[in-house]
């Protein structure tokens, strides 16, 4: 590999900065991110303030392709005794369909960890909200940079 | 019937979570594309996916076009009794798909 | 490159000593699969056979292998593919005596269907042909590419090589300008690869599907604003042969994952 020195190095520094910011967000005590203005999300919150802890949302800082971005949701237990997870909602800030998926748990599960692949229409914030059986809310967010392909593909 | 692949361990320890993975062949057509002739390709995505363990629902997903084509899900189910994991899904065109895997609980 | 210089370079390439299977376009230690230029998520998807969506087609191919619509299935003659097909994809494209031409793996599978199974050929990029090709190709996973460009395959190889170095399209670019002279450099947010085809058929995230090497080559033509050769066109097979020669030594990765 023979990358050109300056532009590639500058991009790596910038990406490291973005990654560091993403990591800082997951540390306790960090100021809660601003909730993006998504009507379905506002409706779900119904005036409640979620806790920006416990729920983990993993996304790459830079997507290889916006058509298939790996995503992980995890909410560590223990759950029994205490409230169990009813559902985890996944919202997109920029997609044409803002509510990407809702994972519903009809029976309490011991290990809440979901992996899937999502589509992201451009660089944006993704927000996950976990609703507990006692109506407590946990939230997590991630920022993903999505670039367009270098060459158009009409095949 | 859509092609699909399921991965579960052959054996799971009672009371402990085991990994379940499923991969489904489905274009998850968003409805925002046009084909080579310029015709609009109608939306057709899987809109609901469910997993039952020995008949009891353990996971249900309301799916949208925001889930990537050829959907992939990985999750964990707590092992209780030996039996079957059954998966079902339905898309906007009403086409249903199903899959199943057996698991032995020791 | 100015036109006189390009013409000289082309003449030099064509006049170079006979390129046999042993000679190389790039030294072996410099050869890189597209994985080396892929992001972490693409690499992770290819490394995990379950997460790799290409295996949806491989499994379909395994079912088709054993199916006989009427008369013979692939298995009737070839028994277990893991044994009979090992090493096959690494030798393709290859000269086929019965058709008197160099054919790629997709065409060879179709020839078998028509000649020996008495069933119609499958359309290029159809799920069934992709499935059978992926199933056969993956039996050679890990086997280094080693195509024969001597003898009856020679003419096709020379045509493929000439095409590789000629400028095409509105952007007036040749394959070599990106993939031989500028691989490793940035083009927008992507890093140019060496354009090796050893991972095909591959699940390309952009296609949201598995696709053939011919489709990938057609996509490149589109990218430089050139008219795409139609699927199955002879020049695509010529290029596939040249690419396989160029990639000799790289292992078959099918089904690969690419962005």
- What is the CATH topology assignment of chain B? Immunoglobulin-like
Instruction: Tell me the β content of chain C.
Output: 5-15%
* Overall SS class of chain B: mainly beta
Write out the strand line-up for the largest beta sheet of chain B, numbering strands in chain order: 2-8-7-4-5
The major beta sheet of chain B can be summarized as: 5 strands, mixed
Main sheet makeup of chain C:
3 strands, mixed
Task: Report the strand count of chain C.
Answer: 7
The percent range for helix content of chain C is 40-55%
Overall 3D geometry of chain C? Answer: globular
Number of helices of chain B: 0
One letter per element, helices H and strands E, the order of chain C comes to HHHHHEEHHHHEEEEHHE
Shape-level CATH architecture of chain B: Sandwich
Summed up, the domain count of chain B is: 1
| CATH arch. level architecture of the largest domain in chain C | Orthogonal Bundle
Low-confidence stretches of chain C: 11-18
If you average the pLDDT of chain C, what whole number results? 92
CATH superfamily of the largest domain in chain C: Cytochrome c-like domain
Approximately how much beta-strand content do the residues of chain B carry?
A: over 45%
Radius of gyration of chain C (CA) equals 18 Å
* Average pLDDT reading of chain B: 96
Can you tell me about this structure?
The complex is a heterotrimer of chains A (155), B (106) and C (259). With 155 residues, chain A is α+β, with helices and mostly antiparallel strands. Chain A has a single domain, classed as SoxY domain (Immunoglobulin-like). Chain A is built from two helices and seven strands; from the N terminus they run ααβββββββ. The longest helix of chain A is centred in the N-terminal third of the chain and has 22 residues. The radius of gyration of chain A is 17 Å and the shape is elongated. With 106 residues, chain B is an all-beta fold. In chain B, 0% of the residues lie in helices and 53% in strands. Chain B is elongated, with a radius of gyration of 16 Å. The N and C termini of chain B lie far apart (33 Å). In chain C, helix 3 packs across helix 7 and helix 8 packs across helix 11. In chain C, strand 5 and strand 6 form a beta hairpin. Chains in contact: A-B, A-C, B-C. Strand 4 of chain A pairs antiparallel with strand 5 of chain B, so a sheet runs across the interface.
